[in-house]
Amino acid sequence: MRPEASTTQPPVRTDSSAASLTIGDLAQRTGVQPATLRAWETRHGFPRAQRRASGHRRYAESDVGLVQQVIRRRDSGARLEVAIAEVKLVQAAVGDPPDAPSVYAALRRAHPTLQPQRLKKSTLIALSWAIEDECCARAERPVIFGAFQKERYFRAAAERWTELARIARSATAFADFPEAADPYGQIRLVHLPETAPMRREWAVICDATDYPAMLTAWELPGQSTVPDRQRLFEAIWTMEPGAVRSAARTCAQVALQLGQAEAAPLLYELAANPPTPPVELLNAAALLNRVVAYVDATA
User: Which of 82-91, 99-108, 191-200, 283-292 bottoms out in mean pLDDT, i.e. has the lowest?
Assistant: First the structure.
């Protein structure tokens, strides 16, 4: 699903106490019949009504914009359930407190079967290069994200990422960049505040229909005296499309929460779930995970 041209963020839902529109008001403002709105609520939990003691539905002014967003997405070719999922996903990102979440933690929650490994930074670099090289060589117009912790680490990889950005339809990097940092060529730079969990994380995510791949890791604490390339991270990596999509969504949510309006259409695009991969792919990934663990242990 390609994003719409507009990068305008959807309206933020107002406090429930401001919900004053009846279902008839909402229907009149959006052109969607009350019976249809009730069916959407029953089947998809959208739009979410506030209930009076009498049982009557009341909606906030912002619900008008949300329903209109769904109609626009549906009219542009999205299935209704996908259009609703897209709008709910972006709205959740906008409405959440700006406490940019951990990509690693989000993956562990959403995909508990992924097996973490403790790897040295030198092994993470090698894995990252492998993903980046294959993404650059084989992926068709991917969405890519990178978490670099520190700006100097991004600068060291900037030449590689410039090449990646040439073949990507979107490229985003996270680090302790200056606030409101200008893009680096075609790469959007997202400043991570000091309290952001992603300041501790490493990630390379290539979301593409033909070549999904993802590596994310968090740095174990208490390593201030450890040589840089020997620092330990707890890492997970996979080629399973659903997990890659989850990581990409989380990165887009972080970017949106941190003021990158361009991330809104990315979230629309990433709302749909990819097809289930063949068992052979999952078996191959499990084998490669074991190989990487052995290589790291002997390095």
Answer: 283-292
The strand pair at 57-58 and 50-51 is best described as antiparallel
Mention every residue, 6+ apart, whose C-beta is less than 8 A from residue 55: none
pTM for the predicted model, two decimal places: 0.70
pLDDT digits (tens, 9 = 90+) for 103-151: 999 898 888 888 888 999 998 998 899 889 888 788 888 999 999 999 9
Q: Are 37 and 47 in contact (CB under 8 A)?
A: yes
Edge-to-edge strands of the sheet including 117-120? 117-120, 232-238, 213-219, 201-207, 143-147, 170-175, 187-191
User: How many angstroms separate the first and last alpha carbons of the chain?
Assistant: 42
Four-point Cα dihedral 77, 82, 85, 91, nearest 10 = -10
Name all domains of the chain by residue range, CATH numbers in brackets: 16-95 (1.10.1660.10), 103-298 (3.30.870)
